[in-house]
Amino acid sequence: MRHATVAARILLPTLLLGLAACAPAPIYKNAPGIIAATPMQVAQAPEQYAHGQVIWGGRVVDVRNLPDHSEIEILAYPLDSSQRPEFGAGGSGRFIAIVPGYAEPMNYPAGAPITVDGQLAGSRAGKVGEADYVFPLVRAAQSHVWTAGEMRSGHPNVSFGVGLGVGIR
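Structure tokens predicted for Slp family lipoprotein:
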């Protein structure tokens, strides 16, 4: 029995370290001043978060190209440790990423997972369907549209449990 306990003490931390190593590093540097509030929270009190830095992500809803900049409307979701949107968690509001110049809509297709790093730039009243809505504005310094492969990477197909299980992929 003693050997099993010693083996468990060695094997479990090694296994956990191995699983943690599977997760890719965050794509943007988490600076100390990054605001942890969700877009929904910022929309309710935009003055409280004025000019703060955020790293937000979600799904692209729409792209609007204007004469000197583009706006990408995003339905926000929480981010995992690699800053990828986690769609199983439910949306946490919408925001508009403002990018300089022209944003090719084919590079930002509707529904695509995206992560944005930028500075809050106020808010704007608008509509979602017929409903009034307040959109936080983020002046994007950088953005990343995730590929299907990137969304899957770092998610090992490993599960632990007791009993019988069948998995089909």
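The two ends are 38 Å apart (CA to CA).
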